[in-house]
Amino acid sequence: MIESVPILAYTLLAGGLLYAAWTDIDRHRIANWLVLALLAGAVGLRVVFGQSGALLEGLAATAVGLCGLLPFYLLRGMGAGDVKLMAAVGAWFTPQVAAVAVASTLLAG
Q1: Distance between alpha carbon 48 and the CA centroid of its chain, in Å?
Q2: 91: which residues sit within 8 A by CB, 6+ positions away?
Q3: What pTM did the predictor assign?
Q4: Which residues contact 89 (CB under 8 A, 6 or more apart)?
Q5: pLDDT number for residue 96
Q6: How many Å apart are CA 106 and CA 40, to the nearest integer?
Q7: pLDDT of residue 14
């Protein structure tokens, strides 16, 4: 995402993703508060540490994550929480990295 973002931020992202995976396996649900927290964290970091255009780049990456998995939700191949989580994860990275994350998710699934 942004070169100057502290490693702590990515540690928090990893922790959030581990919690999302655990709750998805355990309860078959990903909490909306968790998705919103991850999205808010990415937006906040982009505002604080980002340079010109960082917020727009995050929005584009969010769209890549959302649009990449949305067809599978519409075909009932995955849940809405998975799609929302991928959109939030996309916000942490560039659109190109978000596209790789979507492709990796589809290959793993």
Answers
A1: 19
A2: 38, 39, 42, 43, 46, 58, 59, 61, 62, 65
A3: 0.88
A4: 13, 17, 38, 65, 98, 101
A5: 96
A6: 25
A7: 95
Cα–Cα dist 56/73, whole Å:
25
**Residue 73 in 3-state DSSP?**
helix
Confidence at residue 50, expressed as pLDDT on a 0 to 100 scale: 78
Residue 78: closest CA among 28, 38, 31, 37: 28
Q: What are phi and psi of 77, to 5 degrees?
A: -90, -15
Q: What stretches in the chain show pLDDT beneath 70?
A: 1-5
Residue 13 CA to residue 15 CA, distance in Å, equals 5
